[in-house]
């Protein structure tokens, strides 16, 4: 019986088969949900929001987790994507109804784009906006950068609600009658493709350069990596996918207004990527699902609850968000690296995780943990004793020196 | 020595470089040459401006006044401007009238690589990734083709080159270790390997033997000599270990209070009264 745990790797073939099975499983699950074999329309809604948040979360992680640029502008880019999809996909017959206060601008009233075209346009617009603000913003560092991007995302929101843009964006009235999804496959596939693209980018030489910037900007620059160019690249690509995600969200909601793209959305995304692990794509995807489903489960706290006819006063709408904030605080305090840290999901990891259990169990049964802990405590205690003695000796030496100095001084006098 | 220098083509030339921070002249009128295949030492007491000289050469900050030439071609030049016009306390005011400033990444692209005094590896990445990242500077593909793996040949070449480099430098056995988990001496080697991965013609080493015991610094000395020959480098190094400097450098420049106080072969430097004064002080 091996005493020490040995990390074993699976063969390439096994991994390939497992991956294919996983993908097939996801496809089958999506199909079953779509056909109403399992779950309800409520479940479908949550899955939809999960995959959309997974895409936007990964795009945010690209900048925050992989490039190490603390940007909080995601909501603004999402708004750009959402509005370009919204404005151009509302069917002609509903347009008069939606733009009832100020009629739609004549230049675009007869323009209706397909969902795909509008979505890509939304992504490109968001990317263009990011390229524009990237030039000044990315020269800032850490918290200054966060504040600047936050400001720009609010500017986007204010611009969309602005009077002059009413004929296009319908201002603060928002857009409705956006045709919704016909199939669950649409958001799932688009989001999967987007995430796959970003994973490929991260694994390419450019992705490695991003990581280098995250690790040490000065060293990265000394290795010939142009900081601004690479930061801008990651920022713009991230904005593109945030725009795509915003467009997907608009179709999911079918009715949008500027209040849905407040800072709170960015914070929610931040929670997703911090919980999943800054710098882990799979962590982000997992935590997007965990958080989206968790938020629905937390709705229990928003409902009134009674003890023998007496309504407990803290259970009222809004408590959910309090719990949410507490959760974020706990993650930051006790689980700083999130679910996955910077690791990615791997079959080897899963395999060894489960293989490790019997070994751990054996150790536990044999009381080896106890012995280890006792030994650790013993060395710690000894270390402390040595420290203490060292400090005492230091004090004695200093006291002696002082004494000598005093004597010298008194002699001099 | 003069004849010797004339034979070899010049690689790096620092001309009248002055660096002034506010009112402090950290580097005063430094003139320095590094010729092809040479190992040149830059020494001086603490705060003499050695690392400032490195930062000026590698573009971390532009010189306040002066110029830098690479292979005889001027790459950086500057003169006191703005506030510095009045504040400037260095020499050769008015000699340079052209402002040409490059960022560190551009200078690395011109085949000048460096290491840092306090190791600056990409700490949480593996040794392999550290070296692989340094090859990014040579990448020709754009982000789109790189993402879609259209440049897989180039990518493979980069990976092969990384492996080749790691095995030449005896680092192949630690290639999957996280950089920060390795002992100090090893990290120094990795930093040099990373600098070599950018395919430099000129290598600047900032205190490569700092914190090493005599045995380790001996090994490092041999290592530096070996890479100079294997990679056809010219090396400029800052070092405090006199044993290393005297053992390996062909010429030495001595800085004190930002000024060049001596230059010459190790033997000349050892006898130079100014150097002895700077290092040991003299009786009043």
**Total E-strand runs of chain B:** 10
Greatest contact between two chains: A-B, 25 and 36 residues
Low-confidence segments of chain A: none
Q: What does the largest sheet of chain B look like?
A: 6 strands, mixed
| Estimated share of beta-strand residues of chain A | under 5%
Describe the main β-sheet of chain A briefly: 2 strands, antiparallel
CATH architecture identity of the largest domain in chain A: Orthogonal Bundle
Secondary-structure class of chain A: mainly alpha
Structural class of chain B: alpha/beta
Average pLDDT of chain B: 88
Unreliable spans of chain B: none
Number of helices of chain B: 12
Structural shape of chain B? globular
Q: Please compute the radius of gyration of chain B using only Cα atoms.
A: 20 Å
CATH overall fold name of the largest domain in chain A: ABC transporter involved in vitamin B12 uptake, BtuC
Which bin fits the share of residues in helices of chain A? over 70%
Walk across the major sheet of chain B and give the strand order. Answer: 6-7-8-3-9-10
- Write down the Rg of chain A: 28 Å
Distance N to C terminus of chain B: 35 Å
Which labels suit this protein?
heterodimer; A: 413 residues; mainly alpha; ABC transporter involved in vitamin B12 uptake, BtuC; 2 domains; two-stranded antiparallel sheet; 16 helices; B: 284 residues; alpha/beta; six-stranded mixed β-sheet; four-stranded antiparallel β-sheet; globular
């Amino acid at each position: 019986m091996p005493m020490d745990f040995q990390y074993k790797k699976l063969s390439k073939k096994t991994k390939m088969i497992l991956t294919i099975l996983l993908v097939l499983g996801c496809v089958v699950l999506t199909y079953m949900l779509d056909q109403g074999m399992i779950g309800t329309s409520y479940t479908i809604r949550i899955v939809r929001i999960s995959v959309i948040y997974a895409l936007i979360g990964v795009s945010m992680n690209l900048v925050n987790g992989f490039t190490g640029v603390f940007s909080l502008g995601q909501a603004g880019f999402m708004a750009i994507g959402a509005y370009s999809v919204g404005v151009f996909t509302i069917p002609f017959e509903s347009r008069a109804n939606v733009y009832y206060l100020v009629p739609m601008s004549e230049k675009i009233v007869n323009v209706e784009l397909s969902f795909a075209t509008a979505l890509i346009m939304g992504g490109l617009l968001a990317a263009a906006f990011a390229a524009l603000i990237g030039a000044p913003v990315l020269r800032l560092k850490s918290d200054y950068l966060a504040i600047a991007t936050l400001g720009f995302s609010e500017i986007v929101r204010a611009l969309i609600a602005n009077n002059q843009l009413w004929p296009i964006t319908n201002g603060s009235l928002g857009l409705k009658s956006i045709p919704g999804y016909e199939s669950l496959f649409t958001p799932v596939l688009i989001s999967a493709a987007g995430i796959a693209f970003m994973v490929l980018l991260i694994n390419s030489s450019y992705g490695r350069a991003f990581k280098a910037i995250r690790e040490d900007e000065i060293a990265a620059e000394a290795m010939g990596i142009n900081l601004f160019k690479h930061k801008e690249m990651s920022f713009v690509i991230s904005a593109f996918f945030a725009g795509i995600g915003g467009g997907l969200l608009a179709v999911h909601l079918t009715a949008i207004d500027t209040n849905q793209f407040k800072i709170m959305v960015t914070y929610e995304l931040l929670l997703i990527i911090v919980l999943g692990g800054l710098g882990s794509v799979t962590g982000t995807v997992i935590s997007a699902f965990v958080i989206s489903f968790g938020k629905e489960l937390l709705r229990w706290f928003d409902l009134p609850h009674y003890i023998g006819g007496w309504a407990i006063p803290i259970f009222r709408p809004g408590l959910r968000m309090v719990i949410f904030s507490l959760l974020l605080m706990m993650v930051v305090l006790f689980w700083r690296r999130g679910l996955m840290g910077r690791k990615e999901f791997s079959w080897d990891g899963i395999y060894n995780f489960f293989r490790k259990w019997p070994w751990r169990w054996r150790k536990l049964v044999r009381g080896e943990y106890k012995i280890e802990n006792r030994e650790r405590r013993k060395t710690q205690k000894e270390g402390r004793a040595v420290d203490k003695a060292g400090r005492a000796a230091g004090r004695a030496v200093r006291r002696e020196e002082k004494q000598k100095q005093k004597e010298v001084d008194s002699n001099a006098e | 020595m003069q004849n010797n220098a004339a034979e070899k083509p010049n690689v790096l030339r620092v001309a009248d470089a002055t660096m002034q921070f506010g009112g402090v002249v950290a580097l005063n009128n430094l003139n320095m040459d590094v010729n092809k295949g040479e190992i040149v030492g830059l020494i001086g007491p603490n705060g003499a401006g050695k690392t400032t000289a490195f930062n000026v050469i590698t573009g971390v900050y532009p010189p306040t006044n002066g110029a830098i030439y690479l292979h005889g071609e001027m790459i950086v030049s500057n003169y006191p401007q703005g506030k510095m016009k009045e504040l400037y306390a260095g020499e050769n005011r008015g000699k340079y009238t052209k402002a040409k400033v490059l960022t560190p990444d551009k200078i690395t692209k011109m085949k000048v690589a460096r290491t840092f005094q306090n190791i600056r590896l990409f700490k949480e990445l593996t040794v392999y990734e550290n070296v692989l990242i340094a090859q990014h500077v040579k990448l020709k593909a754009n982000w789109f083709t790189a993402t879609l793996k259209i440049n897989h040949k180039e990518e493979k070449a980069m990976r092969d080159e990384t492996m080749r480099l790691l095995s030449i430098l005896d680092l192949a056995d630690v290639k999957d270790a996280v950089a920060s988990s390795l002992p100090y001496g090893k990290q120094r080697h990795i930093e040099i390997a990373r600098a070599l991965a950018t395919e430099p013609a000129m290598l600047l080493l900032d205190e490569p033997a700092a914190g090493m015991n005599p045995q380790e610094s001996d090994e490092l000395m041999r290592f530096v000599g070996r890479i100079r020959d294997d990679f056809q480098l010219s090396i400029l190094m800052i070092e405090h270990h006199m044993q290393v400097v005297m053992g390996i450098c062909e010429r030495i420049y001595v800085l004190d209070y930002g000024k060049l106080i001596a230059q010459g072969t190790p033997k000349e430097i050892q006898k130079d009264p100014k150097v002895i004064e700077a290092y040991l002080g003299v009786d009043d």
